[in-house]
Sequence to fold (229 residues):
Amino acid sequence: MRALIVEDDAPTRDLLARALREELFQVDAVADAADAETRAVTGMFDVIVLDVMLPGHDGFLVCRRLRARAVDTPILLLTGRQALEDRVRGLDAGADDYLAKPFAVEELLARLRALTRRGRSRHLTAVLSYGDIEVDQRDHVARVGGRPLALTATEYRLLEYLVLHAESLVTREELQLHVWGEHAGRESNVVDVYISHLRRKLNGDAASYVRTVRGVGYTLNRVGAKTCR
Fold:
């Protein structure tokens, strides 16, 4: 699953990103309203965590503008405002849920799980498939030809992202951002190492789907150029 975090406070933004990645979310994180709207409209997110107090204009307006542009991704508002009228204002703006600061991370995660379950029929096909590969986003399990794969959490996120973007070129930078966030340096070979691990675990024909585009990144494709290992 993929989440967009909109929070201008860097420590809070980093805390949220770490917590969601530990729950196997792919996380994009931005700090202002303009970037939030651009990402939300162009990206395929399963949930948006939106702070109310943002530079530029507030989260209430962001929420209304997204709904006006037919973005129906579930939105959880975060705010230090705890008055009843503020909660009502947020829900009237089109938010699906509202959580006041300070909050427990466990409660935030529980609310996000509820939102993604509620929005699954609109936003998420529970099982992604490409060729013999299946990725069950509900149970975080991957299979090849019906055989479960023993993947680490990172390997699962990597395969899920490749399947979501099957037959499209995915750069190393994209994979670093969406699988590792800001933790992998631009010069790191972590992507290549994990691609190698993933190929070994896919094995057989499925392993050959993961193709290297030299100097750029990878693509998941059953046909085309010879795989470079």
User: Anything to note?
Assistant: The longest strand covers residues 2-6. The chain has a mean pLDDT of 83. The chain has two domains: 2-123, 127-220. The first helix runs from residue 10 to 22.
